[in-house]
Amino acid sequence: MQFDTRTAGLxxxxxxISHLMKQVLVGLxxxxxxxxxxxxxxxxxxxxxxIVFAVSLEAIALKVxxxxxxxxxxxxxxxxxxxxxxxxxxxxxxxxVLLVGLFFAIxxxxxxxGGIGYNPFNPAMVAYAVLIVSLPLQMSQWPGSFIFxxxxxxxxxSLNIVFGAADTDWDAITRATPLDIVRTGxxxxxxxxxxxxxxxxxxxxxxxxxxxxxxxxxLGGVYLxxxxxxxxxxxxxxxxxxxxxxxxxxxxxxxxxxxPSFHLLSGAAMxxxxxxATDPVSASTTPKGQLIYGASIGFFIYVIRTxxxxxxxxxxAVLIMNMAAPMIDYYTQPKVFGQANARRxxxxx
Amino acid sequence: xxxxxxxxxxxxxxxxxSFHKDESTHQPIQTAPxxxxxxxxxQQHIGRSxxxxxxxxxxxxxxxxxxxxxxxxxxxxxxxxxxxxxxxxEERLLPHPSGLSGQCIVIDTDGLDAWDESLxxxxxxxxxxVANEQLLDLIEAAGIVGLGGAAFPSAVxxxxxxxxxxxxxxxxxxxxxxxxxxxxxxxxxxADEILIGIDILMQLLNAKRCLxxxxxxxxxxxxALEVALSMQSNLxxxxxxxxxxxPTMYPSGDARQLTKIxxxxxxxxxxxxxxxxxxxxxxxxxYSIYQxxxxxxxxxxxxxxxxxxxxxQPQNFEALIGTPFSFLVAQAGGYTKKAERLVMGGPMMGFAxxxxxxxxxxxxxxxxxxxxxxxxxSDDDVTETEKIVMPCIRxxxxxxxxxxxxxxxxxxxxxxxxxxxxxxxxxLSDCIECGACSYVCPSHIPLVxxxxxxxxxxxxxxxxxxxxxxxxxxxxxxxxxxxxxKEEREEKRRKQKEALQAKKAKESAESGAAETPxxxxxQDAIKAAMARAKAKKAARQAEKDGTAVAEPVVxxxxxxIKAAMARAQAKKAARLAETDTIKPTTDKQNAQQEDSNNAV
Lengths: 349, 600
Known about the structure:
The complex is a heterodimer.
Chain A: H1 17-39, H2 41-64, H3 69-73, H4 77-88, H5 95-110, H6 123-134, H7 136-140, H8 146-149, H9 155-162, H10 170-173, H11 178-187, H12 192-199, H13 209-226, H14 233-252, H15 260-265, H16 269-276, H17 287-307, H18 314-331, H19 342-348
Helix pairs in contact in A: 1-2, 1-4, 1-13, 2-4, 2-5, 4-5, 4-6, 5-6, 6-18, 13-16, 14-16, 14-17, 17-18
Chain B: E1 30-31, E2 37-41, E3 51-52, E4 59-60, E5 65-68, E6 78-79, E7 84-93, E8 101-109, H1 132-141, H2 154-159, E9 168-172, H3 182-189, H4 191-205, E10 209-215, H5 219-231, E11 241-246, H6 255-263, E12 278-282, H7 283-294, E13 301-307, E14 315-320, H8 325-331, E15 341-344, E16 351-353, E17 366-370, H9 397-401, H10 408-416, H11 420-425, H12 436-440, H13 447-511, H14 521-545, H15 550-579, H16 586-599
Parallel strand pairs in B: 1-14, 9-10, 9-12, 10-11, 13-17
Antiparallel strand pairs in B: 2-8, 3-5, 4-7, 5-6, 7-8, 13-14, 15-16, 15-17
């Protein structure tokens, strides 16, 4: 009897890419819910629009590149990119800002380099960096949480704002983010402790919505580690890198530099640590390399936040380390079986 | 007894597929009937082919030597699995991933299964008084090879221990590959014999202890061996043997992995295990050693698992070496409708075969016949049968699964780019090809296939480089030799010429007329050219005259030859001047090489 030898023996049945991507979305969901609770419909409109734009752009790119649509759309990677990107944008941002951003994420950062698996840079962060450089005004209009403004903007009104149907009084709805307030305060020479008291922030007692959202991301990230979707190395080393840098400066001068807990909980540090820096394609993949990669991102976030022009720095720090990832991987190859203790054993025998 | 096992070490990585062992262990090992024809390959082991000791038409008895060990390099003897007549010694298809053929001895069986009486009578139960050299000879003569799959001649492996002190003899009963259960059932049913085989090994190696490593998904086998240990009090090394139940994790049955688990020692790639105090043998090998030493039976049969959903009644057979796969599958009730793939070995490391018209060899532990989708190893129902290979997303799951700490994601990247230098830098040669990386890949990339490909390419490139070097050296020497020979010739000629000239001068001096000395090459060439022109003219003239005479043509040809020779000489002289720079030191070396080439 004759047999086909095409697949030699084994057929792999491990969970596939789409499973991993869906797990990431599950991990994000808690953060999305908290963000929605504090910042209103703008968050969800961002997400929905981003997903629609991203999947459409992905389909167009695949079509142009002559790739099969079904397997690549089914991998859910465009959806994850869309969600991560949408969560970094201010809620109620104009729809076209999302479209421009996702064009850079999906077309430029992803498909011009060869699609999933081939992008050297994190697509969502490329989009964010492009926007914050080109559209600084739109990118800085963060609406205040309703607990500060006392006004919950309804769905209809939110849609009107996003699609530009209503003249928006941005001054009434936006509010500077904690990172902005502390930054401008410190630059103007106010001591850190005074700013915190004045603004009633306390990033240990979670008195600010951003701190609660950060906690939600943290829990989602722990879920991903438990599920084996991401390894602990990048998030833990990144948060440590950020916290240690902040601690050193804070201990030196607690008036001019913000506390570690402020840095960990006030901005995108948690989202970045668990969901963005862990993008496997553009990150370092060796165990030791991941520690170096994560810690360096944490360090750069601190440096850019403290001495840079931009209030938050996750995107830039991640992009910088994306560039370094191939080199880190090359120089951090683990010792193979038998090499770790080869010398010792040879000495013994 | 438990004190022999201080602790178990953790293996790195590994995967946990569902093992499908129960299918083939419902009934005891069946002795497969004798097929009408046996095909026995000469090479069933790692090393050189064995030397044929029978001729076509010869009647052979069971256990009779068919092919003897090759003294030059490691090899193993091959014996007649049953009595019958040798009908052919020819190339037959072997169970090999590339569908290779090889020399086989074909026996028409007579069904009598008559033993060769000249084999030592099975009264050798008293192996304890036999010297080690003799024991080794017995094992070598029985043609025993490692039955775990590597098929390395056991006698060679045992002899290679040399002066090394063996702390631990490891008996590999882990059998970590899914589907395969031949070792499991052997341990369940023939534990006493295995222990005697181990006792013989212990006597040979003088090891401090012996650990039988069995994965804990084989409780019956563990129990059987423990019972046998408590009963067999007459064994010399009984107090030194212990059964170690190791966690079920593929590939714990890899010899180096099992050594790590049981002793904590990691044996590097290039190091032989005895130099680090351990040696590993398969349980089935230990059983064969028992058969060879105590029962004087050479290795003519082995336990083969026939399993998979492509087989009606999966089970284990004791099958004669040389039994066709098709015959054995027929004994297991034949194929089901789902028989789409035929694999020798397990689903992780086995290889697909295109036909079942191949014989069972010493390394055949399993014949796996299955549908394409049954080879999906988890218990989950997977809806799509054909998985699409997606790009690598560098998630590192392969890295986590790799038992030897490689970076499959990086090796894959460089292999795809055919940057084999980089692949080697990532320690490709350490890859044990266990397939754990392929198994966990979320993009369904057949990683281990890429690594096998890279290994083959690198080997081919290295071989090509060596060959190129050799032929370059040969060419250079050839050129040098031409020049040298010519130099010698010239020298000789010059001397002759000088002698001639001296003579001529003498003569001319006598006659009083001094003539210009020897004509040089250039003048020769000019002369020849002139002659040629003349001849051509003559030929043309002849043509014009309409009288085609053969003579001038012949002359013309001769002239041409002369001219060519003259030209060649001029060229040679020029080259001689150029190649004077060749180092004479290589002369000796090259001459030696030439000699050796001639000798070959």
